[in-house]
Design goal:
Layout (H helix, E strand, L loop, with lengths): L14 E5 L8 H16 L3 E4 L5 H12 L4 E6 L13 E5 L2 H10 L3 E4 L4 H15 L7 E4 L6 H12 L12 E3 L2 H10 L17
Parallel strand pairs: 1-2, 1-5, 2-3, 3-4, 5-6, 6-7
Length: 206
Amino acid sequence: MTELKNTVAPYDGQSVCLFCASSDGVDPIYLESAREFGRRTAEAGWRLVYGGGGVGLMGGAARSAHEIGGRVVGIMPGFLRSRERLFDEVETVVVESMHQRKQMMYDESDVFVVAAGGIGTLEEVVELLSWKRLDLHAKPVIFLNINGFWDSFFQLVEDTVKAGMTPPSFLKAYTVANSVDEAIAQMLAARETPEIRHDPRAPATN
Protein backbone atom coordinates (compact mmCIF):
# COMPACT_ATOMS: atom_id res chain seq x y z
CA MET A 1 0.00 0.00 0.00
CA THR A 2 1.35 3.43 -0.96
CA GLU A 3 0.96 6.66 0.96
CA LEU A 4 -1.96 8.72 -0.34
CA LYS A 5 -1.21 12.33 -1.29
CA ASN A 6 -2.67 15.28 -3.16
CA THR A 7 0.13 16.04 -5.63
CA VAL A 8 1.68 13.97 -8.42
CA ALA A 9 5.36 13.07 -8.31
CA PRO A 10 7.46 14.72 -11.06
CA TYR A 11 7.70 12.70 -14.25
CA ASP A 12 9.72 13.44 -17.38
CA GLY A 13 8.34 10.76 -19.72
CA GLN A 14 5.21 10.61 -21.82
CA SER A 15 1.84 9.89 -20.27
CA VAL A 16 -1.48 8.65 -21.58
CA CYS A 17 -4.73 9.24 -19.73
CA LEU A 18 -7.29 6.44 -19.97
CA PHE A 19 -10.97 7.26 -19.50
CA CYS A 20 -13.10 4.13 -19.05
CA ALA A 21 -15.75 2.37 -16.99
CA SER A 22 -15.44 1.57 -13.30
CA SER A 23 -18.12 -1.12 -13.56
CA ASP A 24 -17.36 -4.83 -13.19
CA GLY A 25 -20.57 -6.11 -14.79
CA VAL A 26 -19.51 -5.52 -18.38
CA ASP A 27 -18.93 -7.65 -21.46
CA PRO A 28 -15.55 -9.37 -20.92
CA ILE A 29 -14.28 -8.10 -24.28
CA TYR A 30 -14.19 -4.56 -22.91
CA LEU A 31 -12.40 -5.58 -19.73
CA GLU A 32 -9.84 -7.61 -21.67
CA SER A 33 -9.17 -4.72 -24.06
CA ALA A 34 -8.57 -2.41 -21.09
CA ARG A 35 -6.15 -4.90 -19.56
CA GLU A 36 -4.32 -5.24 -22.85
CA PHE A 37 -4.14 -1.49 -23.26
CA GLY A 38 -2.66 -1.09 -19.77
CA ARG A 39 -0.05 -3.76 -20.44
CA ARG A 40 0.87 -2.38 -23.86
CA THR A 41 1.17 1.13 -22.46
CA ALA A 42 3.68 -0.10 -19.87
CA GLU A 43 5.59 -2.04 -22.51
CA ALA A 44 5.86 1.13 -24.58
CA GLY A 45 7.38 2.95 -21.60
CA TRP A 46 4.48 5.36 -21.14
CA ARG A 47 2.98 6.29 -17.79
CA LEU A 48 -0.70 5.43 -17.38
CA VAL A 49 -2.85 8.16 -15.81
CA TYR A 50 -6.33 7.03 -14.81
CA GLY A 51 -9.18 7.55 -12.35
CA GLY A 52 -7.65 5.65 -9.44
CA GLY A 53 -10.23 2.88 -9.05
CA GLY A 54 -9.49 -0.78 -8.56
CA VAL A 55 -12.66 -2.03 -10.25
CA GLY A 56 -13.96 -2.38 -13.77
CA LEU A 57 -11.95 -1.38 -16.81
CA MET A 58 -10.05 1.17 -14.71
CA GLY A 59 -8.77 -1.44 -12.30
CA GLY A 60 -8.00 -3.90 -15.09
CA ALA A 61 -5.86 -1.44 -17.02
CA ALA A 62 -4.01 -0.19 -13.95
CA ARG A 63 -3.25 -3.65 -12.60
CA SER A 64 -2.00 -4.91 -15.97
CA ALA A 65 0.37 -1.98 -16.31
CA HIS A 66 1.54 -2.23 -12.71
CA GLU A 67 2.13 -5.99 -12.84
CA ILE A 68 4.83 -5.63 -15.48
CA GLY A 69 6.50 -2.67 -13.82
CA GLY A 70 4.78 0.18 -15.62
CA ARG A 71 4.42 3.62 -14.06
CA VAL A 72 0.82 4.28 -13.04
CA VAL A 73 -0.80 7.22 -11.29
CA GLY A 74 -4.40 7.18 -10.13
CA ILE A 75 -6.35 10.35 -9.37
CA MET A 76 -9.57 10.11 -7.39
CA PRO A 77 -11.92 12.41 -5.46
CA GLY A 78 -12.08 11.49 -1.78
CA PHE A 79 -15.81 10.75 -1.82
CA LEU A 80 -15.32 7.96 -4.38
CA ARG A 81 -12.64 6.08 -2.44
CA SER A 82 -15.01 3.41 -1.14
CA ARG A 83 -17.28 3.25 -4.18
CA GLU A 84 -14.53 2.66 -6.74
CA ARG A 85 -12.26 0.75 -4.33
CA LEU A 86 -9.09 2.79 -4.54
CA PHE A 87 -6.18 0.87 -6.09
CA ASP A 88 -3.43 2.20 -3.84
CA GLU A 89 -0.66 -0.20 -4.85
CA VAL A 90 0.34 2.46 -7.37
CA GLU A 91 0.99 6.17 -6.99
CA THR A 92 -2.37 7.53 -5.89
CA VAL A 93 -3.56 11.10 -5.53
CA VAL A 94 -6.75 12.00 -3.66
CA VAL A 95 -8.38 15.31 -4.58
CA GLU A 96 -11.46 17.12 -3.34
CA SER A 97 -13.70 17.21 -6.42
CA MET A 98 -14.47 15.71 -9.81
CA HIS A 99 -13.34 18.95 -11.43
CA GLN A 100 -9.95 18.75 -9.71
CA ARG A 101 -9.60 15.15 -10.83
CA LYS A 102 -10.25 16.02 -14.48
CA GLN A 103 -7.96 19.04 -14.39
CA MET A 104 -5.10 17.02 -12.89
CA MET A 105 -5.61 14.16 -15.33
CA TYR A 106 -5.45 16.68 -18.16
CA ASP A 107 -2.37 18.43 -16.79
CA GLU A 108 -0.49 15.15 -16.30
CA SER A 109 -1.20 13.68 -19.75
CA ASP A 110 0.09 14.07 -23.29
CA VAL A 111 -2.55 11.90 -25.00
CA PHE A 112 -6.07 10.75 -24.04
CA VAL A 113 -7.59 7.37 -24.84
CA VAL A 114 -11.31 6.80 -24.31
CA ALA A 115 -12.35 3.17 -23.84
CA ALA A 116 -15.86 1.85 -23.20
CA GLY A 117 -17.62 3.50 -20.32
CA GLY A 118 -20.86 4.82 -18.92
CA ILE A 119 -22.17 8.27 -18.12
CA GLY A 120 -19.09 9.17 -16.08
CA THR A 121 -16.74 8.39 -18.96
CA LEU A 122 -19.02 10.28 -21.33
CA GLU A 123 -19.00 13.31 -19.03
CA GLU A 124 -15.20 13.26 -18.88
CA VAL A 125 -14.63 13.05 -22.60
CA VAL A 126 -17.34 15.58 -23.47
CA GLU A 127 -15.68 18.16 -21.23
CA LEU A 128 -12.30 17.33 -22.75
CA LEU A 129 -13.71 17.73 -26.26
CA SER A 130 -15.52 20.91 -25.23
CA TRP A 131 -12.18 22.40 -24.21
CA LYS A 132 -10.82 21.36 -27.59
CA ARG A 133 -13.83 22.90 -29.36
CA LEU A 134 -12.90 26.20 -27.67
CA ASP A 135 -9.23 25.82 -28.68
CA LEU A 136 -8.15 25.55 -25.04
CA HIS A 137 -5.93 22.59 -25.87
CA ALA A 138 -4.62 20.64 -28.86
CA LYS A 139 -3.79 17.32 -27.21
CA PRO A 140 -4.71 14.14 -29.12
CA VAL A 141 -7.90 12.27 -28.19
CA ILE A 142 -8.22 8.63 -29.31
CA PHE A 143 -11.39 6.58 -28.97
CA LEU A 144 -10.79 2.86 -28.39
CA ASN A 145 -13.91 1.79 -30.26
CA ILE A 146 -14.14 -1.93 -29.47
CA ASN A 147 -17.22 -3.53 -31.06
CA GLY A 148 -18.29 -0.10 -32.34
CA PHE A 149 -19.05 1.00 -28.78
CA TRP A 150 -18.72 4.73 -29.56
CA ASP A 151 -20.37 4.71 -33.02
CA SER A 152 -23.59 6.33 -31.79
CA PHE A 153 -21.58 9.10 -30.13
CA PHE A 154 -19.71 9.78 -33.37
CA GLN A 155 -23.04 9.95 -35.18
CA LEU A 156 -24.31 12.49 -32.67
CA VAL A 157 -21.24 14.68 -33.24
CA GLU A 158 -21.75 14.40 -37.00
CA ASP A 159 -25.41 15.37 -36.57
CA THR A 160 -24.40 18.54 -34.71
CA VAL A 161 -22.06 19.38 -37.59
CA LYS A 162 -24.81 18.82 -40.16
CA ALA A 163 -27.11 21.05 -38.10
CA GLY A 164 -24.54 23.86 -38.16
CA MET A 165 -23.97 23.74 -34.41
CA THR A 166 -20.41 22.41 -34.55
CA PRO A 167 -17.76 23.39 -37.13
CA PRO A 168 -16.77 20.65 -39.64
CA SER A 169 -13.15 20.92 -38.48
CA PHE A 170 -14.23 19.38 -35.19
CA LEU A 171 -14.52 16.00 -36.87
CA LYS A 172 -10.70 16.07 -36.79
CA ALA A 173 -10.64 16.72 -33.02
CA TYR A 174 -10.36 13.01 -32.29
CA THR A 175 -9.30 9.77 -33.95
CA VAL A 176 -10.84 6.31 -33.79
CA ALA A 177 -9.06 3.01 -33.11
CA ASN A 178 -11.01 -0.20 -33.55
CA SER A 179 -8.47 -2.36 -31.72
CA VAL A 180 -5.84 -2.01 -29.00
CA ASP A 181 -3.15 -2.38 -31.67
CA GLU A 182 -4.56 0.64 -33.50
CA ALA A 183 -4.90 2.65 -30.28
CA ILE A 184 -1.28 2.01 -29.29
CA ALA A 185 -0.05 2.86 -32.79
CA GLN A 186 -2.02 6.12 -32.77
CA MET A 187 -0.80 6.91 -29.25
CA LEU A 188 2.84 6.46 -30.24
CA ALA A 189 2.41 8.60 -33.35
CA ALA A 190 0.21 11.26 -31.73
CA ARG A 191 1.19 14.89 -31.59
CA GLU A 192 -0.51 18.09 -30.59
CA THR A 193 -2.29 19.88 -33.44
CA PRO A 194 -2.50 23.57 -32.52
CA GLU A 195 -2.83 24.48 -36.21
CA ILE A 196 -6.30 22.89 -36.29
CA ARG A 197 -8.61 25.44 -34.74
CA HIS A 198 -12.30 24.89 -34.05
CA ASP A 199 -13.55 28.23 -32.74
CA PRO A 200 -13.73 30.92 -35.49
CA ARG A 201 -14.75 33.46 -32.85
CA ALA A 202 -11.36 33.25 -31.11
CA PRO A 203 -8.55 35.60 -32.18
CA ALA A 204 -5.71 33.93 -34.05
CA THR A 205 -2.43 33.47 -32.17
CA ASN A 206 1.01 34.02 -33.61
